[in-house]
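Thread amino acids onto this structure.
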């Protein structure tokens, strides 16, 4: 159901910013529209004097005012956003341009700390909470000249909240309610969307033109998934490329932030700003990969990069159904329209001079041993493939949530709304009932939090360490490393966002690129319009620290295909 009070709050925050600037709008120079504009196109227009940062922000604010009530993509808008734009415009007039993000409005997921706006993680206990410090990546964006104008919606606590038999609807949180995919924003009678927004990050704001780019977070696919679901480019970098300091965690074993945008170029520009020039003392994982010269990923974007590239096709389970050990029948694989799309994508690779190794299967996917099959050995709390789930699942996220969330709360000091995971669970239970302003703190329950809080960090440490070692072995040595090294591959190409269960455990980079529109199996059965309402792309995955090569291949594929189309619901 729509939350009218929350919608009104966002509208009231946006409208004064629009009304106070009518005179400036009347004095606008040659018209420039943000619709479909890339970050380089915005920069070129500002350099030529056709527009300003202020005008770009005003256009985005207008779209938020028009469409956010329908989509719920923005949680909060920075009330000082126009003042920030004015300051950056002054710098430009004085000859100071910080870089390709100077004056560009972006958003960050609402589990990323900002001191200019509340940082809730979607949790009702944190609804109006202003933290005492900002995330390192936010500092990096601001120093690069970006305007952090809003907080984008998310699945509450990055979807580590509820669990089967009552899993949380993707894109739902207690602060903002449900969110809707711009490519099909219809809602069911209970308020849940017909078309998933994908993952716990949101691609809504980029697709609906609320801002130029977004920063999401990814623990189990929540940058690649929403990018795929909303027809945009999303990069999950090698774990540690971007500092996690100041991000509400699930587990630092797998957490990563990543940029999302309309084009590979936009995402490459964002990545250069998000990655620190030197390792962050707050996050040891930032020592894993060295940034490229000048932190410039755009230097790798070559239209002919597919020529001579070696690309593997992990066909078993990802493209074609397979029978997982302990299950009664084949499962997974692609639907006919998805398979047709991927057939075309493979033909594109070959036509552009790439060597395609097909199949390039992963040993941990074809394994007949349930303890060593990564598709069977899911995250504890996920839907079980075989009986006795607790014996063949990974406790890494449960253990990490107890360890890292409590450590995170300590960094907030005495002003933290709660001081421990136990306190949060208690607060949620006490505020479970719906009110006029919300649907309650735990509409879908909090089983994941309960199970994480039940972990004993000492007694359960051995099981956690065993699970973590197995996850790394099955995702790396017996997972992606095996076909890539055996066949001297640059990358593996997966359908849609199908590789999230492998790449996130390995901590390896992945990039989603738009490619096709396919049917929505969850749409109303009687509606023929569902034939082509769901975005469907490809994902390229590589080994640790191979982002330059990943960007090159993704860019070349994008340039030759150019399949991204804007949503019809937000013209």
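Threaded sequence (571 positions):
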């Amino acid at each position: 159901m729509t939350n009218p009070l929350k919608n009104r709050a966002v509208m009231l925050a946006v409208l004064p910013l629009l009304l106070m600037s009518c005179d400036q709008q009347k004095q606008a120079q040659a018209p420039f529209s943000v619709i479909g504009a890339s970050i380089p196109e915005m920069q070129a227009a500002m350099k030529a004097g056709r527009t300003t940062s202020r005008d770009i922000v005003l256009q985005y604010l207008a779209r938020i005012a028009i469409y956010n009530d329908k989509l719920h993509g923005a949680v909060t808008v920075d009330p000082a956003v126009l003042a920030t734009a004015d300051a950056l415009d002054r710098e430009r007039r004085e000859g100071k341009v910080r870089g390709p993000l100077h004056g560009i409005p972006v958003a960050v997921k609402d589990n990323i700390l900002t001191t200019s706006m509340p940082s809730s993680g979607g949790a009702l206990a944190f609804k109006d909470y202003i933290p005492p410090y900002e995330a390192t990546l936010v500092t990096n964006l601001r120093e690069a000249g970006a305007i952090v104008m809003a907080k984008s919606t998310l699945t509450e606590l990055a979807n580590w909240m509820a669990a089967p038999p009552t899993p949380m609807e993707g894109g739902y949180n207690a602060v903002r309610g449900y969110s809707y995919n711009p490519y099909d924003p219809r809602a069911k009678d209970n308020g849940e969307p017909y078309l998933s927004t994908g993952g716990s990050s949101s691609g809504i704001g980029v697709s609906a033109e609320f801002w130029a780019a977004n920063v999401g977070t990814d623990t189990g696919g929540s940058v690649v998934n929403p990018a795929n679901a909303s027809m945009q480019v999303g990069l999950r970098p090698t774990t540690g490329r971007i500092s996690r300091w100041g991000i509400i965690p699930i587990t630092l074993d797998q957490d990563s932030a990543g940029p999302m945008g309309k084009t590979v170029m936009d995402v490459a520009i964002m990545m250069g700003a998000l990655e620190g020039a030197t390792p962050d003392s707050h996050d040891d994982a930032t020592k894993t990969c060295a940034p490229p010269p000048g932190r410039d990923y755009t230097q790798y974007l070559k239209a002919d990069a597919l020529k001579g590239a070696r690309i593997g096709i992990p066909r078993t389970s990802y493209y074609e159904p397979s029978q997982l050990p302990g299950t009664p029948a084949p499962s997974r694989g692609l639907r006919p329209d998805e398979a047709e799309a991927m057939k075309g994508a493979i033909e594109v690779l070959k036509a552009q001079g790439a060597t395609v190794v097909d199949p390039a299967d992963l040993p941990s996917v074809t394994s007949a041993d349930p303890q060593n099959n990564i598709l069977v050995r899911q995250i504890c709390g996920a839907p079980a493939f075989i009986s006795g789930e607790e014996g063949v699942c990974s406790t890494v996220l449960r253990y990490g949530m107890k360890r890292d969330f409590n450590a995170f709360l300590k960094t907030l000091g005495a002003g933290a709304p709660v001081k421990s995971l136990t306190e949060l669970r208690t607060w949620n239970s006490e505020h479970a009932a719906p009110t006029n302003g919300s649907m309650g703190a735990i509409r879908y329950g909090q089983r994941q939090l309960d199970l994480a809080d039940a972990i004993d960090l000492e007694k359960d440490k051995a099981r956690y360490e065993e699970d973590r070692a197995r996850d790394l072995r099955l995702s790396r040595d017996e997972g992606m490393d095996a076909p890539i090294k055996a066949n001297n591959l640059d990358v593996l190409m997966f359908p849609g966002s199908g590789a999230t269960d492998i790449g996130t455990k390995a901590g390896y980079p992945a990039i989603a690129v738009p490619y096709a529109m396919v049917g929505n199996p969850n749409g109303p059965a009687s509606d023929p319009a569902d034939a082509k309402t769901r975005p469907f792309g490809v994902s390229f995955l590589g080994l640790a620290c191979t982002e330059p090569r990943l960007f090159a291949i993704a860019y070349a594929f994008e340039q030759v295909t150019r399949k991204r189309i804007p949503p019809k619901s937000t013209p």
